[in-house]
Amino acid sequence: MARTEYYDDPQAPKANSIVPAVTVFVLDTQNRVLLIRRTDNGLWAIPGGAQDFGEYIAETAVRETREESGIDVEVTGIVGIYTDPKHVMAYSDGEVRQQFSICFRARCLGGELAPSSESSEVRWVSRDELDTLSIHPSMRLRIDHGYSNSPSPYIG
């Protein structure tokens, strides 16, 4: 299913749903962040997705990271909570989702980089390389906050 992201765009369609979702900020031993290239919009992002019924939200973070990247993680904290009503995602099925995402910090436990139906590429990316990739501003915000190691999570 195709997805178009709108950020602070007066022409964006009006949201018709909010879904609890996660993103996951993971660094390797060389301080590189785990990124996937999304198949629905072609942009680079940290792994993430919607919570399933019967699942703790931290389990969502572990599952989505494994599904989209092949990497096994352990949740160690929260980077921030992202709820910007000016950021909506329009899906080809007519759903227009307002952003609601908890960004978790996680530690890599192992696994092998592996793309999936949701990720055409998976890479560990150095901080210096980030500016060369197409990353949505809201995703870049999460990455910047993840690297900042601030003691209190961003809520906004």
Summarize the structure in short:
This protein is of the alpha/beta class and 156 residues long. It is built from two helices and twelve strands, in the order E-E-E-E-E-E-H-E-E-E-E-E-H-E.
Structure characterization notes:
There is one protein chain. By secondary structure, this protein is α/β, with parallel strands linked by helices. It has one domain (3-147): Nucleoside Triphosphate Pyrophosphohydrolase (Alpha-Beta Complex). It contains two helices and twelve strands. It has helices spanning 57-69, 137-148, and strands at residues 3-7, 17-18, 21-27, 33-38, 44-45, 48-50, 71-82, 87-91, 96-98, 101-111, 119-125, 154-155. The chain has a five-stranded mixed β-sheet, with helices on both faces. Strands 1-8-9-2 form a four-stranded mixed β-sheet, with no helix packed on it. β8 (87-91) and β9 (96-98) form a beta hairpin. The chain is globular.
- Structural class label: alpha/beta
Quickly name the level 1 CATH class. Answer: Alpha Beta
Number of strands: 12
CATH-defined topology? Nucleoside Triphosphate Pyrophosphohydrolase
Order of helices and strands: EEEEEEHEEEEEHE
Round the mean pLDDT to the nearest integer and report it.
93
Instruction: Compute the CA-based radius of gyration.
Output: 15 Å
How many discrete domains? 1
Between the first and last Cα atoms, what is the distance in angstroms? 28 Å
Corresponding CATH architecture = Alpha-Beta Complex
Assess the beta-strand content as a share of residues: 35-45%
Shape, per Cα inertia axes: globular
Q: What's the CATH superfamily, by name?
A: Nucleoside Triphosphate Pyrophosphohydrolase
Which percent bin holds the helix content? 10-25%
Query: What ranges have pLDDT less than 50 throughout 5 or more consecutive residues?
Result: none
**Tally of individual helices:** 2
Strand order of the largest sheet: 6-3-10-7-12
Largest sheet: 5 strands, mixed
